[in-house]
Amino acid sequence: MASVTDGQSRSPSKGPAGANKALAAALRDAGCSYASLALRVNELGRRQGADSNYDKASVTRWLNGQQPRANTPELIAAVLSERLGHAVSPTDLGFLPPDQQRPVAGRALVYREDLADTLHTLAELGSTDISRRSLLGAVPFVAGALTNPQREWLLWMVEHAGNNDAARLAPVTDGGPVEQVHAMIGMFDQMDNHFGGGGVRTSIVHYLCTEVVPLLQRRGTPPHQQRLLYAAAARLAAMAGWSSYDAGEYGLAQRYMTQALRLCAEGRDRVLGGQILAGLSHLATSLGRPDEGVALARAGIATAKDSGSPLGLMRLYAMSARGHAARGRSGETAEALKLAEQQLDASRGAAQESAWVSFLDHHYLQAESALCFRDLGLAAQAERTAGESVDANADRRRRQAISRSVLATAHLQQNRLDEAIGTATEALDTLSAMHSERSIQALRDFRRRLESRRHEPLVQEFERRSRPVLGAVA
After folding, report:
1. Could you list the residue range(s) of the whole structural domain that residue 449 is in?
2. Which H or E run contains 438?
3. Which H helix or E strand runs over 334?
């Protein structure tokens, strides 16, 4: 533990070998020795009522990556500003702002105005996620933290009203970094659809944080290309969130999606912004906060209403319907689904819209409608729409598995146990070939509904077969 006089803590961004190069360069340029810096910092500190006793060994520790506590970084910056003859800040010297000294799991819940902070937080979150998971510990979903990104995003919307430059930007197709990132997004999409988020999550996070974030930090990129890079990075961060969600890492999903929204503002892409808010809405509703789910969907609708993307709006109205259905509000659910249908009818097809909504179609709305009908207890409607979704999604395993679970529940709600168990078994067989926590949760929902019939041999056999995939019955 550090002494009181030396009051320092290890910076999360620098290890023992991670020398503070910015501080070393400033000392060299100022011609300032370690001892003289420490002496002057002590003098300035005493003038401000702080009794410190730094020495040249303290400076050595700062250069090795230790983060001075309290206002010491400001004092160091003041001393070096005097010596250099121009102002430098603690950040210029490689010291983190006080709020960044918090663990990354806390910082990543915040939508930050400072773009450099956002990129630093995202890179650190990804690095810690992949290689140092033990430092993250259990990362919880924090419903109360959903307010900040909504507010900051909507304020950005107001400040940039009438400016939707991204819709007019022609894509870059020169084989450069934007096209390469889009190609990787397409590959990750295919893997996610086939194997589930758990099978591709780590690859998405690694590519985002080791390849794409450094591209964004590079100077000299043309503004048009930079804007498109930010939008692509936002899409990747959202994918990291969705794949984390699909792997059952709900707290990480929230954090990646929050950072994705901030990158999206830099890309000025309102279609994508609406889709990120739809993802957060889905997450909130699924984790028992449908009130937040509806609020996030409303923010997304406000975002996308003038973006020229009926398909994007269709999804957002579907998310609103999901939240209302989870709250048992049949009237609001019906109205939201009606608006979703209207937007679907208004679309001229995915080819005429943003690439970010190309996966949305009639079958997507069927699948979401089936979940709404299930939650409202409308078994006949759930059976019809879930059955159509199963037939239409043979190439989308996750969507088909979820719809099969909903169909099984619809059979059960109509007291057709044999059909319910048969359909649920088909869903179980699909899950054995993919890693999707969302699909597993849908089938667990069905299994919970069997509780009153656990004395029946058919149910007992299904519970036995499902245990390796779904876990023990609660």
Report:
1. 373-474
2. helix 437-448
3. helix 330-346
